[in-house]
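> call design_seq(struct)
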């Protein structure tokens, strides 16, 4: 029996339409009759986190992945609640992008190619959309899918730092960049291993990764054992 993949815009539309008929509650605190209450919106105000991966890539995250921000991001990723919540997360990603540009010598965003970290096939089948691309669009960022996975990798969530590095090594390829400057974007950074692999693939394709911007960073990311803090 043939299996057809539902277009991402159809999946998002269906998920958003269902919210019209199902009980609505705040993704951050559970308050009834509102997708995101004002208090939780305020909790998503950007508080940039600056780090550097073990591979030397500069990274800025707009928020810490904890409390309200973690709940809201999970609601987008696992429940498909994109219409309101993606817009609420957009300022965090936009701020992170601006900070990376500033760290790179005040480069204008228009001088960079914004490239999202590729979504795994399993996640794409499950969600029907690419999380960071939806948020980036709400943030007014134009991104290009110039990076792709070449093999299936294990779920990173239960892996340690070195296991994550081994898991993603040589797992990505990129189109030729011809010395173009590239800014990577993703929804959440945990150890930085995936970002380092993406940067490696971009360099191999002739590009220059200037840094990465993410919506949020997990507590593990702020652990000095995993990363180096940028002097800022």
């Amino acid at each position: 029996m043939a299996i057809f993949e539902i277009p991402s815009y159809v999946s998002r539309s269906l998920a958003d339409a269902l919210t019209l008929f199902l009980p609505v509650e705040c993704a951050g605190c559970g308050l009834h009759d509102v997708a995101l209450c004002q208090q939780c919106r305020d909790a998503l105000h950007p508080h940039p986190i600056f780090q550097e991966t073990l591979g030397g890539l500069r990274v800025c995250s707009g928020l810490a992945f904890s409390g309200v921000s973690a709940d809201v991001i999970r609601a987008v990723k696992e429940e498909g609640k994109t219409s309101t919540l993606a817009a609420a997360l957009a300022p965090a990603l936009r701020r992170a992008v601006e900070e990376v540009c500033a760290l790179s010598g005040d480069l204008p965003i228009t001088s960079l190619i914004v490239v999202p970290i590729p979504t795994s096939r399993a996640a794409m089948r499950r969600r029907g959309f690419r999380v960071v691309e939806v948020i980036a669009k709400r943030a007014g960022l134009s991104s290009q899918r110039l990076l792709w996975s070449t093999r299936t990798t294990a779920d990173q969530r239960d892996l340690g730092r070195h296991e994550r590095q081994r898991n993603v090594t040589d797992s990505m390829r990129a189109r030729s960049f011809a010395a173009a400057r590239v800014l990577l974007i993703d929804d959440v950074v945990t150890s930085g291993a995936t970002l380092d692999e993406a940067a490696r693939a971009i360099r191999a394709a002739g590009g220059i990764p200037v840094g990465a911007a993410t919506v949020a960073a997990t507590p593990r990311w702020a652990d000095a054992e995993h990363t180096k803090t940028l002097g800022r």
